[in-house]
Amino acid sequence: MSRPPGRRPGPTETREAILAAARELFGDKGYDGASLRAIARAAGVDPALVHHFFGNKEGVFVAAMRFPVDPAELLTRIAPAGREGVGEAMARSFLEIWEDPARRAPILAMLRSAMTNEKAAAMMREFVTAALFARAAEKYGIPPVRVNAAAGQLIGVVILRHVLKVEPIASAPVDELVTMLAPALQLHLGE
Amino acid sequence: MSRPPGRRPGPTETREAILAAARELFGDKGYDGASLRAIARAAGVDPALVHHFFGNKEGVFVAAMRFPVDPAELLTRIAPAGREGVGEAMARSFLEIWEDPARRAPILAMLRSAMTNEKAAAMMREFVTAALFARAAEKYGIPPVRVNAAAGQLIGVVILRHVLKVEPIASAPVDELVTMLAPALQLHLGE
Predict the structure, then answer these.
(1) Which residues of chain A approach chain B closer than 8 Å at the C-beta?
(2) Contact in structure between B6 and B105 (CB atoms under 8 Å)
(3) Can you spell out the DSSP letters for A46-84?
(4) CB–CB of B184 and A148 under 8 A?
(5) Which residues mediate DNA binding here (chains A, B) (predicted)?
(6) What value does the CA radius of gyration of chain B take, rounded to a whole number of Å?
(7) Which domains does chain A have, with CATH numbers?
(8) Which chain A positions have a beta carbon within 8 Å of B180's beta carbon?
(9) Percent of chain B scoring above 90 in pLDDT
(10) Looking at the predicted structure, is the pLDDT value of residue B4 above 70?
(11) Which residue, among B164, B165, B175, would best test binding to A if mutated, counting the most A CBs under 10 Å from its CB?
């Protein structure tokens, strides 16, 4: 998309053009395959402007896909717990995101697409691997397969709780779930 | 469906008529809402004949939905491990079912439907609760929410491994996964 002649586009229009180009490229090429430079080119803007608005590719993805979690922020929030408290901190942060219907809806929509469409699966796989799993593994020196196992525990629980609505886990208070899941996550992620 | 006049239907036709009626009723009324008697009536046969072919409602469901696991058989296979070995036995049995593409396909199809369709979700929820979760909780005297948490660990892992294909868990040997997951499941299900 190149800029139409006439009036110079304002910041809102430019931002929206970048996000539209990003959604198309991420959907088409996956997270790894869509470069920030290619997104800028498709939006008809300078790559420096994309940096200016969104910081990096991860920031563009979070904004474009309305991903309700900024992975960098999530990891920063969990960090103070240290490796000995990572299980509980991760359980609470993750479950609380899913408690909020406004944040649950977009992530559930992405998960549904990923369950039924290989391109959507590739996009989600590449994004969570690069932005969350690999970074958490490196930060704490945990084998990546153990990070996957911990993520599996949380993903499975939110599917039973919020999608399949299996009782009693669908109605259990978050605090009860955190208490129950923290030791299992700690087993995967602790020393 | 009542029997057409003329030739008396053979056992294969009768069996297929029962399964077709069952699929329709389970899809429409859910697992709890479709009685064996109603399935027999819809198929135009005597309820005793449904018992004769499939034993009970669970047997009709497993056959009608081509569910690749007979829950009663699965619980029988896990039983010898006792409560102290239930984590490992459950991890191995569950993961091995998913390793076999012929068994994975129908269960994955059901899970995909359940993720996107409330009627399919209700059917799956009611079936796994009645045939697996409630029975396992009762058998071992485990709080049902802990059975859900253990199921969540396994469901999340097979989604990451077989659907989203996240590495390294997608390529890890089953034995490695059993070793890694057994203690987490034991934490939920043990004394």
Answers:
(1) 111-112, 114-116, 121, 124-125, 128-129, 133, 144-146, 148-149, 151-157, 159-160, 163-169, 172, 176-177, 180-181, 183-184, 187-188
(2) no
(3) -HHHHHHHHSSHHHHHHHHTT-S--HHHHHHHHGGGTGG
(4) no
(5) 35-54
(6) 19
(7) 11-65 (1.10.10.60), 71-190 (1.10.357.10)
(8) 145-146, 149, 188
(9) 65
(10) no
(11) B164
Residue with tokens 């990451």: B160
Measured between CA atoms, how close is A128 to chain B, in angstroms? 9
Report CA Rg, chain A. 19
What b/e readout covers B112-121, taking b as 16+ CB neighbours within 10 angstroms?
ebbbeeeebb
Report chain A's mean pLDDT, rounded to a whole number: 91
Backbone angles phi, psi at A10, to 5 degrees: -80, 175
- Structure-token pair, residue A117: 């469409």
- ipTM over 0.85 threshold: yes
pLDDT digits (tens, 9 = 90+) for A87-129: 999 999 999 999 999 889 888 988 999 988 888 899 999 999 9
Per-residue pLDDT of A42-62, as tens digits, reads: 999 999 999 999 999 999 999
Q: Which residues of chain A have a CB within 8 Å of the CB of B148?
A: 157, 160, 166, 168-169
Residue A65: predicted pLDDT: 87
- Contacts with A62 (C-beta within 8 Å, 6 or more apart), sequence order: A69, A70, A71
Element containing residue A90 per DSSP (H, E) = helix A86-99
Residue type present at position B87: G
